[in-house]
Amino acid sequence: MHNAAFKELNIPAEYRLFEVKPEELEEFLLGNIPVTDTQGKSFSSQEILGFNITIPHKVRAKEILESKFPVTGLGKTLPYVKISGAINTVKRKADGALEYINTDVTGFSKSLREDLKFSPKDKNILLIGCGGAGRAVVAGLVWKAPHPAKIYIYECNNETVESTRKHFEQFTVLSREIEFISSEQIPEVIKKCELLVNASPVGMKESDGSVIDKNLLHKDLYVYDLVYNRETQLIKDAKSQGVKNAVNGLGMLLYQGVDAFELWTCQKAPVEIMRKALIEALSK
After folding, report:
1. What global pTM score does this model have?
2. Of 46, 152, 248, 255, whose CB is crowded by the most CB atoms within 10 A?
């Protein structure tokens, strides 16, 4: 979608893929090493003026850049970046400084409004999964006022629960809004929730079931599934239960790309061109 956007706006740039080893990450970020893309073309990392970061580097990249560039053109590290605990988008400025944000956060927030037509103001929300994607969802729900009334979080991995709980304890803004729940509590909790978000990997495989019993999905519920590569069982179940407002994560993927593009280029992104390219790529 980025290359389609560059072409549409006649920007002389290309979006390429690079594999960076964990031990190379800091030197890559600082522009100190040569890198080779997946097509075999070599560059100095200093030549790469904007880039996305994906798993497994999002958290470590934030730690490195906060230590090297505590103040950027965006000011001190944005609160929502701190809450998410990760970054995914970086811009190399002319003076060598790096700006860094997490467009997963802003992309989710925009998609929630634009695609699902949902405002989290004073709402109760059930979030399934609190890994990196789940943290981005929480940040997206609270980074702008007004905030939700309550975010209930269920995660099946106890280690992930404890690490996320410890991470969120740093932020007073979350102290009254976050509650971790057990699987046994889900049937009662979902009754009072207006939004269900799946931020777990369940649904990415064709053989996956749903993250929740279909009989718990009530008609007034809004459902957002971050999985975008197929219609998940959760989305199918929601439709079969009469849920009118259920979307996948395609919009989040689109809008995180839009926000990254606009940071890199300082131009308005051609959103519909990017959407078309994204849909075409995913249909192959």
Report:
1. 0.92
2. 255
